[in-house]
Each structure stands twice: as structure tokens, then as C-alpha cells.
């Protein structure tokens, strides 16, 4: 179900014509749909119902406090990777018992804070980190639940820059190393090894890589059962992708759910998921204004007021985010059209079309599917303030994080 729709040539998000907002609010701004967010979370929950997983929304994909509070109300936990994200999750009211903490470089301060807050799991990514967790747990006089992140050396078949499960990636430990750690479990008096976790990458569109992971983990679990390790949880991470254009299909969550159902039965563990993009990716757009049109011999540049600092995915990963006009007209200009931002980098370009409708300076457009890794990857490059974030709920809207004051950057 998609909450972004044209009605009579006007682009609507839920019950609001976006052009109405664009006329009132300084562009560029991020615009989210609460209906879409709720739909996505509830749908994920429904598809995996037979597994009763703990769903820990991946805060790195969108760390807006209001959105996370809304997800909390729907029953979400949180997957965090820094003390900052952990504090946001707690502030949103998420119970520490539903928070997992991953990351290859957790500092003493971060581990200490996570221990004091009694979170569900610290997912450790190296032996050195485990030694450190044990030491900090001892100082706190607490036995701490820990998961070990496994790097299964399985390709997620996705963009190389967002692939994490190959042996040359920095994430997790090999199964052999994990086995060694479990063999030496009694060296770590202040750790309870309760889980293994895995996350092989993001924007994965096929079920097959996940199937390979499940098979590998089942084999591994058999092995560790033999040395007396009986896991309470297996954390399967996130990574399920979303379509970024009309010709792409949805990820087959139902098929994945069936596989995980069998996996859970065989392994007799509780399942944790850490979805980010599949929950919030299509819940947001970036609304922007055409500043100039620039015709060259070969192409027409549409220079908009949003830039790579507001959405870096096209520049960083070559990602294609479709751009819609907020008002459709019936024209079709037969010239290669490239949408670019004002930042002084050639990579500050969004997407090109062979044909596009006629646009004028001052018209509004929106860049789609920016709910995940849009605002959370934004920067102040070129001394550009962070854009406002607005949330639509049916026929109402609200600023959920105001535009950053330019003055705060002039110091
Ligand atoms: N769990 C772990 C341990 C992760 O590293 C990630 C994402 C997730 C869960 C959530 O993955 P998701 O369900 O969103 O695919 N900035 C990139 C994506 C980087 C993903 C990093 N890790 C992008 O814009 O495509």
C-alpha cells in the first residue's frame, strides 16, 4: 500500500496535497507519512506473526525521535550502534529489554552505559571487544547478556558499499572464531553468551541470500549445541530491500517468513529482527523547489534547492531516487533532463530522464523514498542547515524537527 498518490494531477501524501505545504514551508524539507510508517511496521509484524519475533527498528535508518516514539507505540524495539542512538531509543520510551547494540567500535563509555541500562543484548563484533565487555561488566559487578555477530561470508547480492557479510568486510567474526570464543566461555565470568547475530547487508531484494544464511546458522547452531551452548536468541539483522522504482518488485517477505518459521522450529530460539529500510524507506519524501533551469546543447539541468547534503545516497551509492513533480501537466519535453543540487561537487546530481514534463523555475518537485538513510546521513556540507522534518497524519501535519538555524552554523 502506497500513501503517496496523484489525484487529479496533484501529488498527495495521505489526505494532503503536498503543493499546499510547499507553498507554506521553506524548502527543501523532509515530509513523512505516519500512515505509511504504521502500515509498514504492522505489515512486517503481521507477515512474521507466526514467529513472534522481537522487532528492533534500526535507528540508524531514521533517528527522528517522534518517528521512533510512534514505532515504540506499535511495539517496536531498537537496534542501535552508538550511545546517541541508544539515548534516542530510551527517550522514545523503548524498553531496554528490547534494545540491541551492534557496531565494530563500541567505546568504553558506550559499553558502560549499555550495561548500566541493562539492554537486551550487546552484539559483540570481535574478541577484543568481548574482553573489554567482560572487564567493564566486572567493574559494574553485573553479568551481561552478549551476542556474537557472525560474518558468514555470504554475499547479500547488493551494492558493494552496503554489503557486510563477506569475509573481507570489517563486520562480525568468522564461525571458527565464534566457536573458539564459545569454547573459552568460562574465561568470561561476567558474560552470558545468549545470542548470535548476523547482518549481511542492506537493500537485498532476493530471499536466496537469507536462505543461505539460515542454513549456515542452523549448521553452526548444531555444532555449538554439542559444546553446551544453547542460545536464547538468534538475531537475523535487517537488510530486506524496497523497490525504488515502479519496475522493481517488492521483497518477498512472506517467503522469508516461511523460511524463518522452519528455522525457528529447528533451532528452538527466539528470533530478533533489525529492519530499517523496509519499515521507513518509503515513508518519506524530500520536497524541493526548482531554482533554475539551465539548457545546454546535450541536456537540460534542473537545479533544485535540495542537494547531496540532504540526500547523499545518489552520490554515495549511485542510488536512483525517482523525482515527481507536485503538479502534473500533460507536457513531455523530449530532452535529456538531469536533476542536480546547488552543492559544489559534480556528484551532487540526483537522477536523469530522457523525457520529463515541462518545469518552470519556482515549481516544486519531490524526491521519493528518502525515509531511510535520508536525514540520518545528511550533513552541513557547504554550510547548509539541516532541513525541517514534517509529519503528515491523515489531513493534519506537524513539524517534528524544525529546520536547523543557520546561525548555529555561523560560529
Ligand atoms: N542491523 C545492522 C547490524 C545493520 O548494520 C543495519 C544497516 C541494519 C540492521 C538495518 O538494515 P536495513 O534493514 O535498513 O537494510 N546507508 C546505506 C545503508 C547502510 C546500512 C547499514 N546497516 C544506504 O543508504 O543504503
What does this structure look like?
This protein has 411 residues and is an alpha/beta fold. It has two domains: 4-32 and 281-409, Lyase, Ornithine Decarboxylase, Chain A, domain 1, CATH 2.40.37.10; 34-280, Alanine racemase (TIM Barrel, Alpha-Beta Barrel), CATH 3.20.20.10. The chain is 28% helix and 23% strand. It has eleven helices and 20 strands. β5, α3 (65-73) and β6 (77-80) form a beta-alpha-beta unit. α5 (108-117) crosses α6 (127-140). The protein is elongated. Bound molecules: ligand LLP. The site of ligand LLP has 21 residues, from α10 and α11.
Task: Give the key terms.
single chain, alpha/beta, Lyase, Ornithine Decarboxylase, Chain A, domain 1, TIM Barrel, eight-stranded parallel β-barrel, binds ligand LLP
Q: What's the short version?
A:
The chain is α/β, with parallel strands linked by helices and 411 residues long. It has helices spanning 18-24, 34-47, 65-73, 83-91, 108-117, 127-140, 175-183, 208-226, 253-267, 277-280, 313-317, and strands spanning 4-7, 10-13, 16-17, 29-33, 54-58, 77-80, 99-101, 121-124, 144-149, 191-197, 233-235, 270-273, 284-295, 300-304, 323-325, 337-340, 349-353, 364-367, 388-393, 396-401. α8 (208-226) packs parallel to α9 (253-267).
Work out the strand percent. 15-25%
CATH architecture of the largest domain: Alpha-Beta Barrel
Global mean pLDDT:
97
- Class from secondary-structure proportions: alpha/beta
Counting structural domains, the number is 2
Say what the CATH topology of the largest domain is.
Answer: TIM Barrel
Which word captures the global form? Answer: elongated
Low-confidence stretches: none
Name the CATH class of the largest domain. Alpha Beta
CATH superfamily of the largest domain: Alanine racemase
Strand tally: 20
Count of DSSP H/I helices: 11
End-to-end separation: 45 Å
Bound molecules: ligand LLP
Give the proportion of residues in helices. 25-40%
Kindly provide the radius of gyration, computed on alpha-carbon positions and rounded to a whole number of angstroms.
23 Å
Biggest sheet statistics = 9 strands, mixed
Amino acid at each position: 500500500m502506497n500513501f503517496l498518490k496523484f489525484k487529479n494531477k496533484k501529488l498527495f501524501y495521505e489526505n494532503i496535497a503536498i503543493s499546499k505545504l510547499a507553498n507554506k514551508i521553506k524548502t527543501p524539507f523532509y515530509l513523512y507519512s505516519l500512515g505509511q510508517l504504521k502500515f509498514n511496521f504492522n505489515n512486517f509484524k503481521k507477515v512474521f506473526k507466526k514467529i513472534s519475533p522481537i522487532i528492533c527498528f534500526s535507528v540508524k535508518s531514521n533517528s527522528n525521535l517522534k518517528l521512533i516514539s510512534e514505532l515504540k507505540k506499535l511495539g517496536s524495539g531498537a537496534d542501535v550502534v552508538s550511545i546517541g542512538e541508544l539515548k534516542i531509543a530510551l527517550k522514545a520510551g523503548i524498553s531496554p529489554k528490547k534494545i540491541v547494540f551492534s557496531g565494530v567500535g563500541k567505546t568504553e563509555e558506550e559499553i558502560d552505559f549499555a550495561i548500566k541500562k541493562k539492554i537486551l543484548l550487546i552484539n559483540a563484533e570481535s574478541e577484543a571487544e568481548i574482553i573489554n565487555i567482560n572487564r567493564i561488566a566486572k567493574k559494574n559487578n553485573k553479568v551481561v547478556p552478549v551476542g556474537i555477530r557472525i560474518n558468514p561470508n555470504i554475499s547479500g547480492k547488493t551494492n558493494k558499499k552496503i554489503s557486510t557479510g563477506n569475509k573481507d568486510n570489517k563486520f562480525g567474526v568468522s564461525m571458527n572464531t565464534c566457536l573458539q570464543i564459545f569454547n573459552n566461555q568460562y574465561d568470561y565470568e561476567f558474560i552470558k553468551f545468549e545470542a548470535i547475530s548476523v547482518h549481511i547487508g542492506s537493500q537485498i531484494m532476493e530471499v536466496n541470500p537469507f536462505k543461505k544464511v539460515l542454513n549456515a546458522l542452523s549448521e553452526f547452531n548444531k555444532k555449538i549445541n554439542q559444546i553446551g551452548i544453547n542460545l536464547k536468541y538468534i538475531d537475523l539483522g535487517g537488510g530486506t530491500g524496497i523497490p525504488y522504482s515502479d519496475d522493481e518488485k517488492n521483497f518477498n517477505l512472506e517467503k522469508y517468513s516461511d523460511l524463518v518459521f522452519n528455522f525457528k522450529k529447528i533451532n528452538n530460539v527466539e528470533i530478533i529482527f533489525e529492519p530499517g529500510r523496509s519499515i521507513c524507506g518509503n515513508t518519506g519524501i524530500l520536497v524541493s523547489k526548482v531554482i533554475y533551469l539551465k539548457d545546454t546543447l546535450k541536456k537540460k539541468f534542473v537545479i533544485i534547492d535540495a542537494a547531496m547534503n540532504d540526500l547523499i545516497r545518489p552520490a554515495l551509492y549511485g542510488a536512483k531516487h525517482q523525482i515527481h513533480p507536485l503538479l502534473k501537466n500533460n507536457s513531455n519535453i523530449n530532452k535529456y533532463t538531469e536533476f542536480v543540487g546547488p552543492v559544489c561537487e559534480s556528484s551532487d546530481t540526483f537522477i536523469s530522464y530522457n523525457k520529463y514534463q515541462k518545469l518552470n523555475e519556482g515549481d516544486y518537485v519531490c524526491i521519493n523514498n528518502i525515509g531511510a538513510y535520508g536525514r540520518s546521513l545528511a550533513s552541513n556540507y557547504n554550510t547548509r542547515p539541516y532541513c525541517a522534518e514534517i509529519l503528515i497524519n491523515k489531513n493534519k501535519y506537524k513539524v517534528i524537527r524544525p529546520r536547523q538555524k543557520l546561525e548555529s552554523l555561523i560560529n
